[in-house]
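Issue 218. Parser rejects a valid record. Input:
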Amino acid sequence: MAEQFPGAVLDLLDAAGDRPVFEHGDRVVTGSRLLALVRRVTNGLRARGVRPGDGVALLLGVHPEAFAAVLAAHAVGARVVGVRPGLTAHQRHHLLAGTAFRVTDRPDGTAGGPHGTVLALDDLLAAEDDGGRPRISARPQDVARLLHTSGSTGVPKACAQTYAAMTAAWAAHPDRWPPAIRELAPRLERFLVFGTLASQVMMEYGLLALAAGGTLVTADAPAFPDSLVRHRATGSVITVARLTKLVASVRARPVDLGALRALMVSGSPVGAGRLREAADVLGPVVFHGYGQTETGMISMATPYDEPGSLGVPPVELEVRDAGGRPLPPGTDGELFVRTPSQGCGYWGEPALSAEVFTDGWVRTRDIGHLDREGRLWLTGRARDVIIVNADVYYAGPVERVLATHPAVAEAYVVAVPDDSTGEAVHAFVVPAPGRVPRLGELRALVAAELGEATAPTRLTLLDEVPLTPAGKPDKRALAAGG
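Output the parser choked on:
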């Protein structure tokens, strides 16, 4: 039986030896030094009674010791829960429930109610370094981590991922990299990390950077483009909103981004027009990824793919109609996928698990299609709808049409009550620099493309779109404020 996660990561660190793998401020940490930190924390956790299957919450900053703690918690076979900054007290209480231990380096790490024994990271790092390779205690079918959704609809859902699934993931294994990842990986020579290292996206790309021989470089609360310039970053993760701001900033005040080779956009779709604009200003650096907490990466477009597409998925994907029947190329339907590292269900929510995890497939609840070349195109969310005169319309196509208007930088739509039609479209728009979009123009544009029923009846201009703690557009906040 293959050694479980994080065995392959420990091998990467061992092979790195004296090569720098982490840069934190003035500190440069080599592979052998980071492996020694993993040993110490692993030994510290075992000495304090942490065993396979125990729930361990991580309340940690972004630095080499935090990265070592994530790997150590997996080495002992714990069920790891990352607690990111920015959660409400209620959300934090929810995430901590059921954990037996809390590993923290934060001043507020002891707060949050009677949830688990508090373990200071500094105390764990004081454990003996026996010089050996950390022993992996993880068991394949144990839950390795609980990955929480953004919480934009209330309390975050916890998606459970087993050690077998984490072991099957591609990031730390160059021989498993799909074509788009083979294009991306060499560009992550200096990968900017921020937020939380327990993040699914940050950890996945961090491991990819290490496997490609790169260095993880930390940034606290990054401000683009300044952080990219200051840290000479060659790659980073970026949301659609941040990408839009970065492009506008660099166009208005050019800076030297000569080192930049990869920006991985995640969180929400990017329109073809925005991708072309980003390429004009930043060069061929934008990788447009599509995935979910429940699945990991599903597909990724490189800078050389047709703008708007998500490339050819390297995983099993079916487009199905409402009855569950597969649809032919070019026909929109709901996407069902199977990925090597997908979750096994939602922690403590069997009914929801049965709805989403079906017969080995994950129901994405996204709408899209495959073209005849096998490329994936997203067109909306199955639940992001407006019901006009009892007819269902998806928000995604309306947003994409609005985003093509030259006066629009970003566009989001929500349903609002309407006395005549039941619901109507309310558009929230971030204007393009120096432009002021008009409701009449936007209505005419949408009506011509999609029909009168989906033309917005209200328009609100925003300086910037509100974001969830995960960096995604917060439509609940828009609807509440509109």
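Fixed in the parser; the record now loads. The chain has 15 helices and 25 strands.
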